[in-house]
Each structure stands twice: as structure tokens, then as C-alpha cells.
Design goal:
disordered N terminus; 6-stranded mixed beta sheet
Length: about 260
């Protein structure tokens, strides 16, 4: 049984063909053949309580006997696919086709094939820059700016860091991109963070008035868009983490959320 879809856009219909192979001289007695399109949100720590948000069932054949191989077309044009496929640390959004051949005296034949749904969002209407200041009284004062609050997955994060006051012996500065996955709620809430990349901005001590450019390319990173309240189960957010390290290996950092689309 080989349903054909592998990937699709969220507005495209899911269509294909189910092939059932019957060996020569064999027969399959069945009570009916059905196909289902299912979309669900599944927590890895609680797989028994998956949240199914889409279920569409089609009957391919009524009960009878198969004495030769057969093919059955299917069309799920109207099936809702509201969320993008996602496979994270503690949760996934999964879409799949399930074909079931029901039998009377034996276990059913069941075959599942996953497919991927990609949802393309419209560009944000206004992309304002991010400007912030951070420092330690009478020791360190810097301004930093990111050119955009929302960044396309194939774009480049650009900006600059400006040192207004430097009385700490800084030896290193880097920019980290973090992904945070928030799942569940209450006692069952899980928060996981992972550092996706570390990009060195400066090696050596800066001086007052120095301006350091920022250019972080996203195209070669394994990223998803920012997800908010997916199926009321989880969120995925991204943060830019500016890190300074002094000669005594003390770390100073400032995080800023950035929306990816």
C-alpha cells in the first residue's frame, strides 16, 4: 500500500493512489478498505494523549475478496491543514495517511505514510529596527542595534554594536542564535533551549567609540518560523544573544527575541 503524497503546501489538496498488491494464487478477504488523513500534535513524553486536530475518512472499497492487485485513487481536497509540520525536542506536528484493510478473523492490515505540510506566511507589514543599551555602571556601556525585528529564514541578521564606555578588559564578543520550545502548561510545562549557532563578532579588546558590524547568515541553519500557540500546545521562539567575555572569563550577555518567518 503506497499512498503517493510526500510533501505539500498547506493550501494544496492531498491526492494520490493506494496500491494493494496480491500475490498470484492468493486472495484477501476483507470487511472493507478505508483511508484516513490525520493531523495531530504529539508530546513525546505523553504519546498516549495526542491532540488530533484533523481527521478525514474515505471508504475505498466495501467488504469483499481481492483476488488480484488493485489501485484506489483518493482525494482529500477539503482536508484542513492549519499548522506546519514540526519535529522538535518535546513535541511534533505530524500529518499522515493511514490505510486500513479490515478483516474478520485476522488482524487488520494497516499502513501509515507521513507527509510534510509547509505553510507560507505573508511578509510582515512593518519591520522596525531593534535598538537597546546595556552596561555596568561606570565600567561598560554599549549600544546595539539589529536592523529588523522580523527576519526571513533565508535572510541575514544585520546590525552593529557601539562601545560608548569600556573600562573592562573585554577579550571576545559573539552572537548566539537560540531556539526555545515551550510545551504544555502548569505542572506539565516543559521549556527547552538550544543554541543553534555561535558567531564571533570580535576577538580582542575594543576601545571607546569603536563600532562592530553584525552579519549573521540564516540560510545554512536548520530553522523553522516562529510558532505561537500551535494547537494550544506549544510555542517556538528565537532569540539573539549578544555575549561579551572579559579576560577573567566572566560573561556578560543580553538577549533579544527576533521573529522568523
Amino acid at each position: 500500500m503506497l499512498p503517493s503524497p510526500v510533501s505539500c503546501w498547506f493550501e494544496q489538496p492531498v491526492v494520490g493512489t493506494v496500491g494493494i498488491n496480491v500475490d498470484p494464487g492468493k486472495r484477501i478477504e476483507h470487511l472493507g478498505i478505508k483511508i484516513e488523513l490525520i493531523g495531530l500534535t504529539e508530546m513525546f513524553h505523553d504519546r498516549g494523549n495526542a491532540n488530533t486536530f484533523t481527521t478525514v475518512v474515505r471508504e475505498l472499497a466495501i467488504g469483499g475478496v481481492l483476488v488480484e492487485s488493485a489501485q484506489y485513487p483518493f482525494d482529500f481536497t477539503s482536508a484542513a491543514k492549519p499548522y506546519e509540520s514540526y519535529n522538535g525536542i518535546n513535541v511534533r506536528v505530524r500529518y499522515f495517511i493511514r490505510v486500513t484493510i479490515s478483516r474478520n478473523y485476522s488482524s487488520n492490515y494497516v499502513k501509515e505514510d507521513d507527509f510534510i505540510v509547509q505553510k507560507v506566511e505573508s511578509p510582515p507589514e512593518a519591520v522596525a529596527p531593534i535598538k537597546m543599551e546595556v552596561g555596568i555602571e561606570e565600567c561598560l556601556h554599549i549600544e546595539f542595534e539589529y536592523d529588523k525585528q522580523s527576519v526571513h529564514l533565508q535572510d541575514v541578521v544585520t546590525g552593529k554594536v557601539f562601545f560608548l564606555l569600556v573600562r573592562i578588559k573585554i577579550k571576545h564578543m559573539e552572537l548566539n542564535l537560540l531556539r526555545r520550545e515551550h510545551t504544555g502548561s502548569g505542572q506539565h510545562q516543559l521549556n527547552e533551549s538550544e543554541t543553534l549557532t555561535r558567531f564571533e563578532l570580535m576577538d580582542g579588546a575594543p576601545v571607546r567609540g569603536e563600532r562592530i558590524p553584525i552579519r549573521l547568515f540564516l540560510a545554512n541553519l536548520d530553522l523553522t518560523p516562529t510558532y505561537k500557540s500551535i494547537s494550544n500546545k506549544f510555542n517556538v521562539k528565537y532569540y539573539l544573544n549578544l555575549v561579551l567575555v572579559d579576560q577573567e572569563d566572566r560573561r556578560y550577555f543580553k538577549q533579544q527575541e527576533v521573529a522568523l518567518w
